[in-house]
Amino acid sequence: MTSAYRHTTKWLAIAPIAVMLAFVLVPVLNIFSTSLRLDSFAILSATTTRNIVWFTTWQAFISTAIVLVIASPIAAVIANFKFIGRRALISLVSVPFILPTVVVGAAFLELLPRSIHRSALAIIIAHVYFNVGLAVRIISSRWQQIHPQLDDAARTLGASTIRTFLTITLPLLKKSFISAGLLVFLMCFTSYGVVRILGGPARSTIETEIYFRAMQLGDVSGALVLSILQLVVVGILIFLITNIGKAKASPKFGQTVYSRLHHPRSSRQKLLVATVAITTTVAVVTPLMSVLHRSIYLGERFDTSA
């Protein structure tokens, strides 16, 4: 019985690997073997390629930095306070991340002034909107696992709220911030739809350049070279995220019967919760309302023909 079970388990483990090899790896290797030329690697030293790589990197870095700054107060409120609409806020802040990139791009084309259409600023704004929910989820879930007695002990010793955060909370959240930052950077670095819609032909990233070379120039070999470059970057990021995730899983701060959640006590806490909740709701809903308005109104006239 044990031998038969092990034999069955072995074949069940082999089956998905075989499917992956047949339907994923083999076609990819076939494309590389038939289309990749060694002389195409020369495009990596071209000025155009260097500019594209530089733009891809710095817009992803700036987008990530802004996401972490915006996500921090939202995560703080979600992880520490009980208030009416808390669950709704958690769900709402996650909505942009699950939206199709075409919807997000169309929303900001409608919402943003025409003067910043096809600009790096428009791309960064859309990336921030798209990824804040991801960062909030990662940071707030970790924040909730920190034992509240650590904060209480620091305050008993005379530490202020800011000092408690800087000396107790932030060091415990450091790996969560890094993990969230790497994931957001990965999403922004490999973004396609947002860049195509809001950036236009003048704002190319590695992802959009791969499409442009393969589909419009017919340079499949050059597109494969850029794909290899992107795969290397993505592989490094995934390796870092995986290792940080393993290290982050070791402390057991979440094993407690206590909860960090409490109702806002002071007027400052109430103001913080209200400000974050209202600002987040407006920021998430406004682009969606602009798309809805544009889809049912033609000029000043209500129209349902579309």
Structure description:
The protein is mostly helical. The protein has two domains: 1-35; 40-302, MetI-like fold, CATH 1.10.3720. The chain contains eleven helices and two strands; from the N terminus they run αααααααααααββ. A two-stranded antiparallel sheet has the order 1-2. A hairpin with a 2-residue loop joins strand 1 (297-298) and strand 2 (301-302). Helix 3 (86-98) crosses helix 11 (267-296). The longest helix has 34 residues, at 2-35. The chain is globular.
Give a summary of the structure in a few sentences:
The protein is mainly α. The protein is built from eleven helices and two strands. The protein has two domains: 1-35; 40-302, MetI-like fold (Orthogonal Bundle), CATH 1.10.3720.
List the helices and strands and how they pair.
Blueprint lengths: L1 H34 L11 H34 L5 H13 L2 H11 L8 H24 L4 H9 L4 H29 L3 H7 L6 H11 L3 H29 L18 H30 E2 L2 E2 L4
Antiparallel strand pairs: 1-2
Helix pairs in contact: 2-5, 2-7, 3-5, 3-11, 4-5, 4-8, 4-11, 5-7, 5-8, 6-7, 7-10, 9-10
